[in-house]
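DATA SHEET
Item: assembly model
Revision: 1
Owner: S.N.
Input lines:
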Amino acid sequence: MNLAEAKKKKKLLSVMVLLFALIVVMFFVSLSTGVIKIAPGDVIKTLFNQGTDRQELVLFDFRLPGILLALLIGAGLAVSGVILQGITQNELADPGILGINTGAGLAVVLFLYFFKNQLDPTSSFSIFIMPVAALVGAVVAAVIIYALAWKKGVNPIRLVLVGIGVNAGFAAFLTIFQLKMDPQDFRQATVWLTGDIWNASWNMVFALVPWMLVLIPIALHKAPSLNVMNLGDEVASGLGTSVESERRFLLFIAVALAGASVAAGGGIAFLGLVIPHIARKIMGPLHQYIIPVSTLLGALLLMVSDTIGKNLLAPTEIPVGIIVSLLSAPYFVYLLMKTK
Amino acid sequence: MRSFIHHSNISKIIIHILTILALIVAIGLSVSYGSTKIEFATVWQAVFHFNPELTSHQVVQELRLPRAVSAAFVGAFLAVSGAIMQGMTRNPLASPSIMGVTDGAAFALVLMLAFAPGISNMGLIGSSFVGAGIAVALVFMIGSFSASGLTPVKLALAGVAIGTMLRSVSSIISLHFNLEKEMGFWLAGGLDGTSWTSVQILLISGGVGLLLALSISKSITLLSLGEDIATGLGQNNFLIKILGIVAILILTGAAVSIAGAVGFVGLIVPHITRFIIGTDYRWIIPTSVLFGALLLVLSDVVSRLVNAPFETPVGAITSLIGVPFFLYLARGSGGGK
C-alpha cells in the first residue's frame, strides 16, 4: 500500500514537473506571438527591463496580464469542474453545461448596466467588485438549478437536463435585455459571454489571484471528502462523512471558483468538463492527485487556446471560449458516446 | 401522455375549427398591433378593398400581413418537425432546437454569406437545408454509436455539443467577415424583414415537407409504438425514417432560413397536441400545424409589445415559454427514475 502510494506521489511529481515545463514554454511562445511579434530573446530581455519602450508596453500592459488571467481562469474552471463532477457523481457536470456560467454572466451584465453611470468601469473598485457580482449570480443560478432538480434527492441526469433548461432561460433573459443596453455594450457583452478574456488588466489579475489562492487549496484540503463521495452517498455516510453539509460546502467552493472565473473570462464552456477527465485518466480516481494536475492542465489549455485565438485569424481576435469549445467539444462527444 | 378526449372524431374536428378561428383572430391581432395601431375595420378593408393610396393599407399589405402569415408557417413547420422527431425517436425531448438543427442551418447560412455573398434566396434556403441535415446526421450518429443508445439526456447533450461546435465555427467566420449582425439575427430568431417573397418560399418548400409528413403520418404512429411492433406489422422502418428525416430537413430548413433559430416551438407543441388529441399521428400532424402556427403568431405579437416600440427577438419569447415546459419534462419523463 505504502509502496503504491509512494509510486503515485512520484508519478504526480513527474506529471506536475512536465506540465509546469510545458506551461513555461507556452508562456514564452504566447508572449512572443501576436500582431506585433517579439522574438523570444527580446521577450526575456524585456522581462529583465532591457527592452525598448514599445516592447515593454506590449508585454507589460497587454500580453502579460492577459496570459496570467488565462492561467488563473483555466485553473479555476478546471478545479470547479473537478468538484462538480465529484459531488454530483456525474461525469458530465460542468459549470457551463449546468448554467452556472450563464447565471454569473447575467449578473455581471445586469451589474454593469445598473451601475455603469455610478462607476467608472475601468476603476479598480468596479473591477474588484465584479467577481463578487458574478459570484452572486453563480450562487443564485446554482440554487435555482439545485431546487428545480430536487425531487426527493437530486438525480444526476435530472440535474444536467435542468441545467440545460435553466441555461436557455438565462440566455433568453439576456437577449431580451439586449434592447436596453446601447449596442456597443451589448456587443461586448455577447462576445464576453461566449468566453473572452476581457478587460485584461493588472487590476483584474490582482482581483482574481486571492480567489484562486484561497479556494483551490481549500478544494485540495477537501480531497478526502470528494474521494469518499465518489463511492456513493450511502457508503460516504457509512464512513462517517456528513454528506449533505460537505456537499453543500464543496458546491459553494465550486460555484465561487466558476463565478470568479466568469467575471474575468466570460462563459468558457467545456473546459471544466474535459480537464477533470484527462486528469483522472492520467492520475486515477483520487482527488488529492486529480486537483493539482487539473489546476495545471486547465491553466495550460486556456493559455494555449488564448494564443490560438489571438493568432489564428490575426488581426481578428477570436474569443478564447470559442477555441476552447472547438478543442474540447469533440472530446465531450467521445465521452458522451462512452458513458452509459 | 394520456389524451383527455377519447376516440371522438367530432370533438377533434371541433377542436380544429376552434383553433382555426383562434388563429384567424391571432393573425388579425398581429396585423393590427404594432408601432402604429391599425383598427380592425381598416385591416379588413386593406385586405378586401385594397387602396394603394392609403399608407395604412400599404402597411397592412406589405409589412404586417406577410409577417403574420410567415409567423404562422414557421410555427407550423417547426411544430411538425418536432412531432415527427418525437414520434420517430420515441424521445420526449427531441426537437429541432434541442438537437442543434437550427444551429446547423444558421451555420450554413453564415458560411454562404461569407463565401458567396451574391447568393440567391433559393440558394440560401438550399444551404440551410444542408446545414440542418449535417447537424441532424451528427447528433443521430453520436446517439447510435453511443454505449446505451439515444436516451433523452444523451440526445440533449449531443445537441448541446454539436450546437456549440457549429456556433463556435459560425462565430469565427462571422467575426472574420464582419457578419455579427446577421449572425446575431439568426441566433436570436426574428420575423421582422419578412415579405411576400418569404411567404412564397415557405409555401413552396414547406408545402412539400408538410405533404410528405402527412403521407407518412400513419407509419410514424406505428414507429412511435416501437420499432419491433412496426416491423412486425410489415413496415419498412428504414424507408419511413429516411422520409421522416427528409421532411424534417425541408420544414426546419425553410423555417430557419426565414425566421432564424426560433427555439422550443418544436418541443412544446407536439406534447400539447398529444395531450389533447391522442397518439394518432394522422391527427397529431395537422393539429401541430395549427397549434404551432397559433403559438408563433401570438409570440410574435408579444415580442412587439413587451418592449415597445422596440422589437424583442421572437426566439427569446418562445424560449421563455418553452423553458418551464422543458424543465417540467426534464423532471418527469426525460430525467425520470
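QC remark: The CA atoms of residues 17 and 23 of chain A lie 10 Å apart.
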